[in-house]
């Protein structure tokens, strides 16, 4: 069961970072660019949500071409999904999925000016609706809040994430 949960978690990370469709390239361009920056630069994400109807917290670190995961405060693990795998999944979802984004408003996240975008996305594996906060200074994703429907036994979930880019190192 734990191994299955880790596989689903890796899928969740890939799915939550998939790219918008080509049809919505203009409206979702800043969102796509922020996702790319998240995966291709050193970053540390903290997320909480619901998976299989149960609370889950995860931390993800992208650094030095590797992805590290910690689930529910547990031991850090090297993920089988590399940053390059995430980018390849984005390309696939961009070609085959549907997405629309809309600039909603400006806000600050930890005193950093941000643009808030709505996101609606549907891929082969999920339907997602939420909001994404993107730095007006760096173009990086600062925060995300989404409702996701995976269908099947996984069902629906709600996830919140925040992202940091300073002093990111592989976990010990």
What does this structure look like?
The N terminus is likely disordered. This protein has three helices and nine strands, in the order H-H-E-E-E-E-H-E-E-E-E-E. A hairpin with a 5-residue loop joins strand 7 and strand 8. It has about 170 residues and is an alpha+beta fold. It has one domain: outer membrane lipoprotein receptor (LolB), chain A (Clam), CATH 2.50.20. The chain is globular.
Chain-wise SSE layout:
Elements: H1 2-16, H2 25-40, E1 43-51, E2 54-63, E3 66-71, E4 77-78, H3 83-96, E5 98-109, E6 112-122, E7 127-135, E8 141-149, E9 156-164
Short description:
The chain is of the alpha+beta class and 172 residues long. Helices cover 26% and strands 45% of the residues.
Annotation field: number of helices: 3
CATH level 1 class label: Mainly Beta
How far is it from the N-terminal to the C-terminal residue, by CA? 26 Å
Q: How many domains in all?
A: 1
Q: Report the CATH topology name.
A: outer membrane lipoprotein receptor (LolB), chain A
Regarding quaternary structure, what we see is single chain
What's the total count of β strands?
Answer: 9
| CATH second-level architecture | Clam
């Amino acid at each position: 069961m734990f191994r299955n949960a880790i596989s689903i978690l890796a899928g969740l990370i890939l799915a939550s970072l998939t790219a918008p469709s080509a049809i919505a390239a203009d409206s979702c361009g800043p969102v796509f660019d922020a996702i790319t920056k998240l995966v291709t630069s050193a970053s540390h994400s903290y997320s909480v949500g619901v998976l299989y109807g149960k609370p889950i917290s995860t931390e993800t670190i992208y650094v030095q071409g590797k992805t590290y995961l910690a689930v529910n405060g547990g031991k850090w693990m090297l993920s089988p999904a590399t940053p390059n795998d995430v980018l390849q999944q984005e390309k696939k979802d961009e070609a085959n999925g549907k997405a629309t984004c809309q600039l909603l408003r400006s806000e600050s996240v930890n005193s950093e000016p941000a643009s808030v975008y709505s996101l609606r996305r549907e891929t082969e594996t999920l339907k997602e609706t939420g909001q994404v906060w993107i730095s007006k200074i760096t173009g990086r994703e600062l925060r995300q809040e989404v409702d996701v429907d995976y269908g099947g036994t996984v069902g629906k979930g709600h996830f919140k994430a925040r992202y940091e880019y300073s002093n990111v190192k592989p976990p010990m």
